[in-house]
Amino acid sequence: METLKTILYFSIFRYPLKLEEIHSYTNYEHLSDTENELTHLIHEKILTKVDDFYVYGSDLDSVIKRLRGNLYADRALKKARKKARFIAKFPFVKAVGVSGSLSKGYYDSGSDIDFFVITQPGKLWLCRTFLMLYKKIFLLNSRKYFCINYFVAANQLEIEEKNRFTATEMKTLIPMQGKAVFEDFFRKNIWVNDYFNKFKPNLSAVPNAKKPFFTKSVEFAFSNPIGNGVDMVFKRITIHKWKAKFRFMNDEDFKIALKSTRNISKHHPSHFQKKVILALNTKIEEVSDNYNINLAKEHV
């Protein structure tokens, strides 16, 4: 029942999928295998088909929601490409991609444009600070079109949390700048194929980031022991601030949602990953109770 778990996952976001999309999240070789399973689920009244979309339960309005979100996403993606080119010009940025709801083709009035940034090793916190200062000073701290909440350094590209949430984020990530770095990134995260064996990212249209003279000058000025020290100072300041601000979080959640190491910086105080996995497991229990279908639960 690979198709059902995929549909349950996306139903958390009220985002129904089409046949080809569902198939891409399964390990079935033939599209007909996916279609046959979906037909069975419809016959058992677990799913409903609305036009080309497969809906879990009776949430038929989710189709309209998705279509509207797809329309707005096309516009938002154009803005995201411009912002990605701009972010790529900052010191120590090696690659930029778009994640979150926009990477899945959805955007609405409550959405942000989430950027995933790969930095030069040893300069992650310097890079993050430069970008955050720009956001606070020039964008008045608005994150609507400039949400930069996940950084990794180019010498630690393998994502440590390996679960359905992170695998889905990897599969839907849209690389926008830094082709060569993203090639290495996806090689280091081949584990995604354990979840989705048809995962084959297409990087043919992704340019390598180009730096202006000013950026190169800043990078040169901080490419020394002093720059390394400043990087560590920014790291300590940020962690101290987060521990004070999010003191309600337990240590385990803090280490995942606000992971802060020399080569990783995450700022997900709502711990969305955990919420999604727990919501999925609740739906898995619901299917087991109502339809006697047993699916393996996911881990955070």
TrEMBL record:
Gene3D superfamilies: Beta Polymerase, domain 2 (3.30.460.10). InterPro entries: NT_sf, Polymerase_NTP_transf_dom. Residues 79-123 form the Polymerase nucleotidyl transferase domain. CDD domains: NT_KNTase_like. Signal peptide: none annotated. This is Nucleotidyltransferase domain-containing protein. It comes from Flavobacterium sedimenticola. The lineage of its organism: Bacteria, Pseudomonadati, Bacteroidota, Flavobacteriia, Flavobacteriales.
